[in-house]
TrEMBL record:
<protein>
    <submittedName>
        <fullName>M20/M25/M40 family metallo-hydrolase</fullName>
    </submittedName>
</protein>
<dbReference type="InterPro" id="IPR011650">
    <property type="entry name" value="Peptidase_M20_dimer"/>
</dbReference>
<feature type="domain" description="Peptidase M20 dimerisation">
    <location>
        <begin position="211"/>
        <end position="366"/>
    </location>
</feature>
<keyword id="KW-0645">Protease</keyword>
<keyword id="KW-0378">Hydrolase</keyword>
<dbReference type="InterPro" id="IPR002933">
    <property type="entry name" value="Peptidase_M20"/>
</dbReference>
<dbReference type="Pfam" id="PF07687">
    <property type="entry name" value="M20_dimer"/>
</dbReference>
<dbReference type="Pfam" id="PF01546">
    <property type="entry name" value="Peptidase_M20"/>
</dbReference>
<dbReference type="InterPro" id="IPR051458">
    <property type="entry name" value="Cyt/Met_Dipeptidase"/>
</dbReference>
<keyword id="KW-0479">Metal-binding</keyword>
């Protein structure tokens, strides 16, 4: 790849931008129909009863890739999980780009969705509702149609494209590393990786994503009595594991909201002055953020803006806690077991193994001797944070492509969630860039997930312009 400086980056001609936008607008109904058809497949990961749906989803995508023109598009197994691999490599002199995403989705309960059942997609007010519409099937659809628009000009891709779409991202990609190792020959010669599983800052103010946080998942069980015991018989004379869980988790943060685990911040790299200026240039106000993110209040670590907190600062969150009789009438019993799920979002240079050990030591030091406990931290599902190398030419190309695709200036950001970017970069010895079509208000992992169709089409246009950008070609 060539390495032009930022001021030499070439813009997309207005005529080409208009041509691509017109092509995609003419196929708007086809884009919606494709995404809706795919969303109907209940490709929920981690549930054995949905394995057939995952396989159908993978086969749907492999067929769609072949329909676009990929000579090779097949479904492979990652320890039984259906993973789609495709390649279109006909230009030995051109760079090779690997596009990564996932086709698995989070579980969804029909009875609590208000717009439509989660796997019965519905188009309303410019949004397509359905589980996976934004995270991340819509992002893959943008790639399919971005490539279609590109092929209208070239007939074949102007660079070499490979596609990897896994079926286990929502459960931490536990078998991705082994899959990459087993199929190493398929990925030889990868020059650049694009991860498409990210959000934009806002519909009105898109921004180039430079990195993602990492993640560490921990599950804690605390054991009290040998079985649930009538509280009137033993209350005041036995330990309550739920009370101990509450006491322990209350110590996870200090009074300022910082994580109170010793050593937690020791490896954290502070933002550079340049990136801090970029994040503070994003248009932000509390009311707009509360509305778009569906949050009640704005809180967080003192001394940092909201974009800095969610993109560049580590956090620990309790995602669930269960014990006793959470539903129905109480039995009036002290529970035998209390459970909690904790997730840690990490930033450079925190590592999965380092944070896992810090959590283990903290729980061991803090928990009462009156209870037994088990702390499970599956390190194979953890993800390390990743930031695209500063000044990489692909960032220049992506910035120019987004300007053309969205028809406006773009900002700079990271993403608050995690992705296996560090794993992919390390395994394939290639840098990673990020592009997605999601928005905070798309309700990822929540009820009534949806995607804005105009974001989908602008995202597809961006990808067309990216594949055609001169800085990606020798």
């Amino acid at each position: 790849m060539t390495h032009p400086s930022e001021d030499r980056a070439q813009t997309v001609s207005p005529a080409r931008a208009a041509e691509v936008a017109e092509y995609l607008a003419a196929h708007r109904d086809d884009v919606i129909a494709a995404l809706a058809g795919w969303v109907r497949l209940r490709s929920v990961s981690g549930l054995p009863e949905r394995r057939a749906d995952l396989i159908r989803s993978a086969n749907w995508l492999a067929g769609a890739l072949r329909e676009v023109g990929f000579p090779t598009a097949e479904v492979l197994s990652a320890d039984g999980s259906p993973t789609v691999y495709a390649e279109w490599c006909t230009r030995p002199e051109a760079p090779t780009v690997l596009v990564y995403s996932h086709h698995d989705v989070r579980p969804a309960k029909d009875e609590i969705w208000e717009q439509t059942p989660p796997f019965d997609p519905a188009l309303r007010d410019g949004r397509l509702f359905g589980r996976g519409a934004s995270d991340a099937k819509g992002q893959i659809i943008a790639h399919l149609w971005g490539l279609r628009a590109h092929l209208q000009r070239s007939g074949t891709p102007e660079l070499n494209l490979k596609v990897l779409v896994e079926g286990e991202e929502e459960i931490g990609s536990p078998h991705l590393a082994a899959f990459l190792d087993e199929h190493r020959d398929r990925f030889t010669g990868t020059d650049l990786i694009m991860v498409s599983d990210t959000m934009l800052w806002s519909a009105e103010h898109p921004a180039v994503c430079h990195g993602v946080r990492g993640s560490v998942q921990a599950d804690l069980e605390i054991y009290g009595p040998g079985h649930d015991i009538h509280s009137g018989a033993v209350a005041g004379a036995t330990v309550n594991p739920l009370s101990e869980m509450c006491r322990l988790l209350a110590r996870l943060h200090d009074d300022d909201g910082r994580v109170a685990v010793p050593g937690f911040y020791d490896s954290v790299v502070e933002l550079s002055d340049t990136e801090r200026r970029q994040l503070r240039a994003l248009p932000y106000d509390d009311e707009d953020w509360r509305q778009r993110s569906h949050t009640r209040t704005v809180v967080g670590e003192p001394g940092y803006t909201v974009p800095e907190r969610i993109y560049a600062r580590p956090v620990a969150e309790v995602l669930s806690m269960a014990s006793g009789d959470p539903e129905g009438p109480s039995r009036g019993a002290i529970p035998a077991v209390a459970t909690a799920s904790i997730t840690v979002r990490t930033v450079p240079d925190q590592r999965v193994d380092q944070v896992a050990e810090q959590l283990r030591r903290w729980v061991a030091d803090q928990i009462s001797d009156a209870v037994d406990y088990q702390l499970s931290i599956p390190e194979e599902t953890g993800q390390n944070p990743y930031v695209t190398p500063s000044g990489h030419p692909a960032l220049t190309a992506l910035t120019e492509a987004m300007r053309a695709g969205f028809g406006d200036e773009v900002g700079h950001m990271r993403n608050a969630g995690a992705a296996p970017a560090a794993l992919l970069s390390g395994a394939l010895d290639a840098p990673v860039i990020f592009f997605g079509t999601g928005l905070p208000e798309d309700n990822w992992h929540d009820t009534d997930e949806s995607i804005r169709i105009d974001m989908l089409l602008k995202g597809a246009a961006t990808l067309t312009h990216l594949w055609e950008h001169p800085s990606l070609h020798p």
